[in-house]
Hints:
This protein has helices at 3-8, 20-28, 53-63, 75-83, 86-101, 119-128, 142-152, 330-347, and strands spanning 10-16, 34-38, 43-49, 66-73, 108-112, 156-164, 167-174, 187-191, 195-204, 206-207, 214-215, 220-223, 225-227, 232-234, 238-254, 256-274, 277-280, 293-303, 307-327, 350-363, 367-379, 381-385. By secondary structure, the chain is of the alpha+beta class. The chain is elongated, with a radius of gyration of 45 Å.
Amino acid sequence: MDLWWKAAGYCRVRLTSADPMRTLRMICQEIRLEQIEWESGLAISFCCASGDLKVIRQVVQRQGDRLEVIQKFGLPQLWKVFASMPIVTLFLAVLLGLSLWIPSRILFVQIEGNQKIPTDLILESAQECGVYFGASRKALRSEQIKNKLLHLLPELSWAGVNTEGCVATITVRERQIQPDQKSRTKGDIVASKNGIVTSFTAYSGTPLCEVGQAVQQGEILISGVSDLGIRTRVTAAEGEVFADTVNRVSAVFPKKSVHKGETEKVIRRFGLLVGKKHIKFYSDSGILYPSCGKMKKIIPLELPGGWKLPISLVIETYQKAQWVVTQCSQWDAEERLLQCLRRQITDHAVAAEIQQEQLVFSQEENVFRMDGKIGCREMIGRTTDGVYLEGDTNDDGSSCERGTS
């Protein structure tokens, strides 16, 4: 039985006759038969091409015998089986299409060689370069991707893309940044605010202030210019200057505040995140109540082996709660305002220590108010660029131009 028979279709039939051999000899004169087997003294079975079945029936009818088709084989019969099961046929067609499409596409992207740069940032930049889920392998150009990736991420010194099967591997090399050395920029130490100097220490430069001296904001406290007699030395002024300062402060606190109470109802919404597209499985916006709190949880889908698909399950949880109005007491408001003002002073100063407070607490229609002054001891010296005259010299003996540092 050759391949043509199997492709065109063949069948196995049973011949029942008083003289099967005589009928079989008449059939073999015109038609090719295979796999002839005796089943009984009056019945014999054999295989023939489906196209020859009509001729065999005519011969059998002339002899008055009986012909029975036992089973059909070949592609035509297989097609009839699939036609009777459309769902299976559709599944096989899709499977065949995927088997032809998947080997030519990128399904997974992995990053190698990065230590400081986040992997998600490199993946997002790679999408702009054309390396993403479903991208064509033939369309990838390693040199173009490398140039564009280096332009998007200046922190990289080299990048390359290799594909193996459905996996694209992006190998990167991060730019080596030398550790910053201590800056020796020429400059002065000036006052950051008004105050009375209480102590100072000059490590480098010439001090221009004294203990007990009142200084104004911007006044030079330690100069980077040192007069050595024969020449003038220009360097970076280093030191610490502490002074007593007075800070005017003002703050308000509402008498009534509104916040969320206990949760009354929890609503969950589901969706899919395919790449950057968010597919929602609900029709409304999700925010159902003014006091509704929202929490979003994204669960990436993974295959065995740790391969992450560009598809994530999004679960949004909305918690409905009632607004609760609370009345703040005078003692509580005063305590909170005092803590706020103290924190404001210490957070915006260097090495600040509060010395005295002169504060007035008052009430208005809807708020509590606290105004006054806070005196503290803090470091007011700040480094700034200096302006030097022509003829001033640096540490190496070279001259400084006017207006440079």
